[in-house]
Amino acid sequence: MPMPAQHPPINPDSPFASMAAHHVAIRVPDYQCAKDWYTAKLDFRVLHEWLFGDLELAYLAPAADDNFHLEILGGADPTPKIVFDDLADSLGVAGYHHFCMNVDSVDETLAELRRRGVTVVGESFDLPAISRRLGFFADLWGNMIELAEVLPEPS
Description:
- The chain is of the alpha+beta class.
- 16% of the residues lie in helices and 33% in strands.
- The longest helix is centred in the N-terminal third of the chain and has 11 residues, at 31-41.
- The two termini are 14 Å apart.
């Protein structure tokens, strides 16, 4: 069954009504390398950079989206994470898994990512339960990123 066309009504009376998504943060060992990778491979833009203790941080945003920010936290030798080359294997580990970007075409986007030397994790697939075609890729440190394309309504 596909996702419903409408979401439940918003709740402006909630004490949390002012909550709205702003960014997701990823921890990387090499700040400059991460910044270079996201700007060169994904065409993200650097919005702001700052220091916090011994860390370097930045907000990045997709090429044509000012509403989503990716915060990179770099430096100070973090503990390495498990890097997966199989999506199914990655689903058995608790904690942060991925963030998702909507695209017009998952397959065309994955083809361009492959052309740019980006690690694609598995093959794209349709998930009718959410009316989406999905694909996954990873940055240099194994941080997973999902691509989602809305599937056409069945005839």
